Amino acid sequence: MESGTPNVDTEGGYFFSANSIEELAGRIVHKYQKKPIPPATLQDTVSRYNSFVDAGKDSDFGKPAPQYKIRTAPFYAAWATPVIHDTRAGLRINAKCQVQDLNGQIIPGLYCGGESAGGFSQHGLARCIVQGLIAGKCALEEKA
């Protein structure tokens, strides 16, 4: 672990620091990285961001104006990889896992759970099992 950077994984290649932006670009090396980050590209990106502070406007994304420039060493970077595992999109369901149409009306006899159900923040096997159980119980009650 580098001095001054507690609780981060520098040895595993997930956190990097350097005294210049160009040096930082050279240090960002990860086993899943296909190409090194060109130092000039990172420096240009930081310079562009800093220009948004001067302009009081984010010209790229229209976000609220950034207030602080990136200019004082040491500089830090962290490796982050998004994993497309779950979705907030999918069929709209209620608490009984009944599928709803575009007007919020229940579609009789149609149930959904797991990855194909939208709007729930829990993911993985637990979501599938719990929603499958709920859907099964509710479908059985509907038939009774």
Unreliable segments of 5+ consecutive residues: none
Biggest beta sheet attributes: 2 strands, antiparallel
Report how far apart the termini are. Answer: 62 Å
How many beta-strand elements?
4
* Rounded radius of gyration (Å): 24 Å
Percent strand: 5-15%
Q: Brief description of this entry?
A:
This protein is of the alpha+beta class and 144 residues long. The chain has 3 helices and 4 strands.
What do these coordinates show?
This protein is an alpha+beta fold and 144 residues long. The protein is 30% helix and 12% strand. The strands form two sheets. The protein has a two-stranded antiparallel ribbon. The longest helix has 19 residues, at 125-143.
What is the fold's blueprint, element by element?
Layout: E1 15-18, H1 21-27, H2 39-55, E2 75-78, E3 98-100, E4 106-111, H3 125-143
Antiparallel strand pairs: 1-2, 3-4
Helix pairs in contact: 1-2
